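I am still learning, so can you show me any protein sequence you like together with the matching structure tokens, please?
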Amino acid sequence: IHSVNIKSIVSYTLDTQVHNYGKWSQLFTIILGRFDLLHHITTSDVFSDDPAWVRENLTVLSWIFATISEDLVDMVIRPPGRRAHAIWRHLCDIFSGNKASRAVHLEAAFHSLTQGDLSAHDYCHRLQQLANNLADCDAPIDDRTLVHQLVAGMNTKYHTLRTLLPALPVFPSFMQARDMLLLEERSQSVSDRRAADTALVATATRPSSAPASQLVAPTNNAGGVTNNRPRGGYGRGRGFRYNGDGYNGGGRSTGFLPPWVSPWPAA
């Protein structure tokens, strides 16, 4: 037992700001019972002449100091020779001496808690944590009240579930309501992803139209024609075309325009 790493078993720290004394003390007594050391905190018997008892007492003391906050260490630590039983009782008095005032603040926090941006898991865990802390202050919350607060503080996007839960023929337990909320959150998450994928596919397959600024009119470089219309003063509208025998009018100008307005006179 002297080589046991207590931090690997008790992963959290007892702290006055977290209000986790009930959880810490319960787990700690289980560990002491496992190693047959429970008598070091439950009885005030002292066997200072027994080397084995002294070593066990020091082991329990080191485990206590390793799992409490620095502020609590300063409150309970005493000169060497103090027994684990005395330190245990001192910690108990610290967390039980102001139960009434702590219960008032915890009840206010419990009844004002809303889900907001919390996930379903975090929201339910916070509710359960507050209920456990109230139980440590001798102000337990029954399961039905826990479900009522779960529904009252639930995010409005779960409005269907908020209406369904209180209307069930058999009122659900907190764990049943929690599982239903987790399932609803997962279902909505899948629906949102599918809607986003559908919108992405629709955007990718939609034909795009080029803006007018990107449309370039065709230009005939040989004849200076833009948009199939000739440039210049002569031949506007109707021009002259060379057909092998001469330049004939009546067609659009697509080649060289002569500087006269009529063909050569017949010989």
About this structure: The longest strand covers residues 247-251. Confidence is low (pLDDT under 50) at residues 229-240. The beta strands are 219-220, 225-226, 239-242, 247-251.
